[in-house]
Structures are given as structure tokens and as C-alpha cells.
Design goal:
The protein is α/β, with parallel strands linked by helices and 323 residues long. It has 10 helices and 12 strands. Among the domains are: 123 residues, HSP40/DNAj peptide-binding domain, CATH 2.60.260.20; 100 residues, HSP40/DNAj peptide-binding domain (Sandwich). The protein has a 4-stranded mixed sheet. Helix 5 packs across helix 7.
Length: 323
């Protein structure tokens, strides 16, 4: 894994103050921004490196963590082994996220080095895996072991969100207490999060970690199964018989669906990619729309005439089939 020297990338000294770091970032960002260099892949890559360096050095907590890794490397320590043991994602549904103001909502555009330290692009990261020692479940744990700062208690808080908020992502403000009193913390809820999953905010609980336990509020229109959604769609009997189109609700807004002639009540149509976004990106689940046939409400005299005509036309056929 390539080590990222963020100070060198921004061209600032190790003891640079926040103002110097911000000025260096703005200068380099203007020079290498993709809009200024259309079609220049090298400039785009350089811009990503600059942004990554700024996301680390402009945040006091991340900069402190990075400086510990940098010190370990300069002393000839095993920084690569530290990252390998502490940064591997687990699979129990725990997600490490940035706090408000940390930059882009996902980490996927950042380097492997960045992801190993700061959370792995919302990948799961809580369960102990085989062969890992107790207490080595996260990169933060390993740093605390090295620095002799273990023992801080983690905090869990439930957080209720709507399906629409899970679809688009949202933010929750949480109050935490430490030795200096209460403080508010804005925590991003990632797009596609599921009911019961845990969102981990490292080091924000008086030295321990804050865990938000997601509770997804029941929805009156959609049922969720993994990243697929299901709903019922009212279709007039004439549209089902003759064919046509109807609007289908989705969390992203209504879409038009074609109803083929002769559609029966209860038939289910699959609208691909119209379900919940995948938590790690790369598309979305499907929406399953079940047809429910409807009559005009209220029935007009003309409606009744047409239905009586249909009954007279079809009842003899039905009697002939049953006789």
C-alpha cells in the first residue's frame, strides 16, 4: 500500500496552521480542478489527491490520527501492518461515517490508504474476524493500544429515520457529553442504510465511539426486503383489459409503467433499479408493483349500463362452459 504524505501533497510544513493549509488547498485546487483542465486525467488525479490531503489535514481529529501514523513511519515502525490489522472491514452491518463538514458523503473516491484509516467507504467494520486478537477490531483500537489510552466506554443511541431519508441520506444531530459538558454532533446517515444497522462515529464519545442504531419507520406505501421495495398500484379495469399506462410511486418520484392488454388482478411487475440504493453504491434494488384492479367510484348510471352490457355478453359463455 502506498503511503500518502499529505503535507507534501499540499506543499506545507508539518507544523502548518489551519489558515496555511486552507490557502495551499485553494491555490492547488484552482490550478488542478477538472473544470479548468477538461479531459486531463493527470490533473483530475492530482485534484483528487489534493482534496484527500485537505480532508485529512483540515480536520483536527483526522490530522491527529494521521500524524501518529506518520510518526510511526518516520521511526521505522510497522505502519503497514497496523493498517492491515486495523482497517479490514467486517460484515455485521456497522458503518463508519464522517461527521458533518467532513467533505464528500462517500469515501469511495479516496485512496486505499485513506479508507483503511478513516472508515472504508461506509463498509462494515465492527465484527471480529478469525485470527484477529481481542481488542484489535478497529484501527482506532490499535492506536489506543500503542498510546496506552484504552478503556474509554462506547455509547449507543437509537435513531429513527423514514424510508425517504434512507433513500436520499440524511443527517441527525446528537448530543454527547464529555468532561467539558454537552456538545452537539451532526452525523451523516448514509444512503441505503437498513433497519437495525449501526453507524459508528469514531472517538466522539469522550474517547470512546458513538454508535447510532438505525430504526426504519414503517412506511404506509412501501415494504422493504433488502434493497427491493414492493407496493400496490391501482389500475382501472379498462386499462387492465385494453392496455395502457399508469403512474407507479417510487421513493424518487412517480414513474410511468406500461400495462399490457389482459392484465389480471394481482400481477406483479418488476421495475429494475427503482428500489433502495445499494449502501456501497453501484446501483439500486428493484421495485415490485402489484396490480390491484379498481372500479370507478362512484359508479355513474352510464358505468352501470356498460357493466350490465358486459355481463349480458359474457354470462351465456360462462354458463355454457360450466354446463
Amino acid at each position: 500500500m502506498e503511503f500518502k504524505d499529505y503535507y507534501k501533497i499540499l506543499g506545507v510544513a508539518r507544523d502548518a496552521d489551519p489558515k496555511t493549509i486552507s490557502q495551499a488547498f485553494r491555490k492547488l485546487a484552482r490550478q488542478h480542478h477538472p473544470d479548468v483542465n477538461p479531459g486531463n486525467a493527470a490533473a483530475e488525479q492530482r485534484f483528487k489527491e489534493i482534496n484527500e490531503a485537505y480532508q485529512v489535514l483540515s480536520d483536527a481529529d483526522r490530522r491527529s490520527k494521521y500524524d501518529q501514523i506518520l510518526d510511526l513511519r518516520q521511526r521505522g515502525g510497522g505502519w503497514e501492518d497496523l493498517l492491515r490489522r486495523g482497517g479490514a472491514p467486517g460484515d455485521d452491518g456497522t458503518f463508519t461515517v464522517f461527521t458533518e463538514g467532513a467533505g464528500p458523503e462517500g469515501l469511495g473516491q479516496f485512496s486505499e490508504f485513506f479508507q483503511q484509516i478513516f472508515g472504508g467507504a461506509f463498509q462494515a467494520g465492527g465484527r471480529r474476524r478469525r485470527g484477529r486478537t481481542a481488542g484489535a477490531d478497529s484501527f482506532e483500537d490499535l492506536l489506543r493500544q500503542r498510546a496506552g489510552r484504552r478503556g474509554a466506554a462506547d455509547i449507543e443511541r437509537p435513531v429513527e429515520i423514514t424510508l425517504e431519508e434512507a433513500y436520499r441520506g440524511t443527517t441527525r444531530t446528537v448530543t454527547v457529553s464529555d468532561g467539558r459538558g454537552d456538545r452537539s454532533l451532526d452525523v451523516k446517515i448514509p444512503v441505503g442504510v437498513r433497519d437495525g444497522q449501526r453507524i459508528r462515529v469514531a472517538g466522539q464519545a469522550n474517547g470512546g465511539d458513538l454508535y447510532l442504531i438505525v430504526r426504519l419507520r414503517p412506511h404506509p406505501m412501501f415494504a422493504r426486503d433488502d434493497d427491493n421495495l414492493s407496493t400496490e398500484v391501482a389500475v382501472p379495469i379498462w386499462t387492465a383489459a385494453l392496455g395502457g399506462e399508469t403512474d407507479v410511486p417510487t421513493p424518487g418520484g412517480p414513474v410511468r409503467m406500461t400495462i399490457p392488454p389482459g392484465t389480471r388482478d394481482g400481477r406483479t411487475f418488476r421495475l429494475r433499479g427503482r428500489g433502495m440504493p445499494h449502501l456501497r453504491g453501484g446501483g439500486a434494488g428493484d421495485l415490485l408493483a402489484k396490480v390491484r384492479l379498481t372500479l370507478p367510484d362512484p359508479l355513474t348510471p352510464r358505468d352501470r349500463e356498460l357493466l350490465e352490457e358486459m355481463r349480458r355478453a359474457h354470462e351465456p359463455v360462462a354458463k355454457t362452459k360450466t354446463s
